[in-house]
Amino acid sequence: METYQDGANAVLSQLDGETTDNLIASAIKTLPKSAVAEVMPVVKTKGPTSQWVEPYYDTYSKTGKIELLSSPVSMYDISNTRKNMVFSSNAVEDLVRMYTPEAFSSTLHGWILFQKNSQQRDELVKVLQSPEVSGIPASATIPAIVNTTQEDVYEYIQDQVMRVIAEISKDYQLGNVHFSVVGPYSIAYPMMRLQSHMGRIHYMCDDRLDHIYIFPTGDAAMSRAGLSIFEYADEVQKAVDSETGDLSYWVYNRSIIIVNPCHKRKPIIRNIKVS
Fold first, then answer.
1. Ordered structural domains, the chain, with CATH
2. Quick one: which of 94, 96, 84, 95 has its CA closest to 31?
3. CB atoms < 10 A from the CB of 77, how many?
4. Which of 9, 21, 204, 255 could form a disulfide with 231 if both were Cys (CB 3.0 to 4.6 A apart)?
5. 107-121 residue pLDDT tens
6. pTM of the model
């Protein structure tokens, strides 16, 4: 395989299958976090099954009894496997000839993250709208704007979000933890202001939601997170596209979003209804 120098970077002028495979595999291993992973921890599992175990104790009980609650995690279901075509082999060869390996990886990251973000957003919305989460009575209602200013509504949203955060923190005896807020785009500006003041608010917007959902972000060990992404593997395979007949690269992602097992005893994900 020949290369030529362009400044400090070696650019591939001829490709073999092994080189292309290695570049793609390397790019997958260094894939940045998705947008959804900014509002909850990602747990890498060693197999397609696992469980989330969380200690639970009733802060209002005098017994001081601590229970271990768990939620099963299974990624055998086909709905938990996402198959995305990255590029055809011809397109990959063209890209690698045009760019340095570093620029190629960056382009690949952007394309895969675009698809991964879209799929994880869909799953997050589905989880938040499930009876397990959305069936919890709203902690407050954001009224429609009538005889008031937009600024008043923004302040009301901020006040209600902070009140719900304080309630969750008290009920679960949380310290100075980060919280995530997910809701329609109307929350974007007030959440940006809260974020600038507090520095521990993570938020994400999706207009398919008509409630604002508030939960602890948790940490890398899942401790007291409202939700977690369990991820088994990102795999790359070469296969013939049945529609075009071209040899293509496919990325398989097996993951699932799980609700904290303590949520069934005492809601750790709470919501505010938006009129």
1. 3-274 (3.90.1690)
2. 84
3. 10
4. 255
5. 888 888 888 888 899
6. 0.84
